[in-house]
């Protein structure tokens, strides 16, 4: 618990710091990009200059993308939790992933239709699962299987070191058959800015953002990994107050009183 607290505080401190830097940096990038666009017109007839400007503009684009991620991280968006039906969410996510992940990755979705709704920000939750799925993809450069499932999860007693109160939860599991992580990487994977990906490819913010979101939502994020075999991420979220269902999932029940 001590470690968790230290982690949250560090996350918050890093958040404040990055927010300021990302903002200023973004302003500088705007100036650079504006001037490069001017140069682009001037360099129109010189292939070498043109090529250089194009490369520079592309780099500015990547920089802007990174600052956007940093700002999103620093802002730690205020959450608007709502009742989310896991089956609906995973169905939609599965469709999206099948379109985006390519043919070498087999996507498997497994969720009982009657699973109760969780209480979490729907947009952030989808973003978190997507984040984990994209990490899984990155871990399977030569293809593999990505399984996403949801199950009821009960916490029966609060033992020592227990993080969540007794109660009912839903556990989302994102498992891949990828490269896995050695223990030293696994130990640092949730740290902001920790990445093993080549520069430009990873910001190292994905898992720390997912971690922050899950904590803020009253849940828990757990990682298991075996080098050479794959990784499993478990995202545990509290249930929505009973009776709360997202409007889209309300079913009209023909009853004596009609509707
Ligand atoms: P990024 O993806 O930008 O590197 P993350 O915070 O999402 O940042 O992940 C941090 C690191 O954790 C990754 O660079 C990678 O080394 C490791 N990691 C995360 N997910 C997986 C996975 N599914 N399989 C193997 N390694 C992973």
From TrEMBL:
Residues 20-241 form the Histidine kinase domain. This is histidine kinase. The chain holds residues 288 to 546 of 663 of the full protein.
């Amino acid at each position: 618990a001590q470690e968790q607290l230290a982690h949250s505080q560090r996350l918050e401190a890093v958040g404040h710091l990055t927010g300021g830097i990302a903002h200023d940096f973004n302003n500088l990038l705007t100036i650079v990009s504006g001037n490069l666009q001017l140069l682009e017109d001037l360099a129109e007839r010189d292939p070498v200059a043109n090529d250089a400007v194009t490369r520079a503009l592309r780099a500015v684009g990547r920089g802007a993308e990174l600052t956007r991620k940093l700002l999103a991280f620093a802002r730690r968006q205020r959450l608007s939790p709502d009742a989310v039906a896991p089956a609906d969410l995973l169905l939609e996510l599965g469709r999206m992933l099948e379109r985006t992940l390519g043919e070498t990755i087999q996507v498997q979705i497994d969720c009982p239709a009657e699973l109760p709704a969780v209480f979490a920000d729907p947009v952030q939750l989808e973003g978190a699962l997507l984040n984990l799925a994209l990490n899984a993809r990155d871990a399977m450069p030569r293809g593999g299987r990505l399984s996403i499932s949801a199950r009821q999860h009960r916490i029966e007693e609060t033992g020592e070191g227990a993080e969540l109160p007794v109660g009912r939860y839903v556990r989302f599991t994102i498992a891949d058959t990828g490269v896995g992580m050695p223990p030293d990487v696994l130990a640092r994977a949730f740290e902001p800015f920790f990445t093993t990906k080549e520069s430009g490819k990873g910001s190292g913010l994905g898992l720390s953002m997912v971690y922050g979101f899950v904590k803020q939502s009253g849940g828990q994020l757990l990682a298991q990994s075996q080098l050479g075999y794959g990784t499993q991420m478990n995202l545990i979220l509290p249930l929505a107050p009973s009776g709360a269902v997202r409007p889209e999932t309300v079913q009209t029940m023909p009853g004596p009183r009609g509707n």
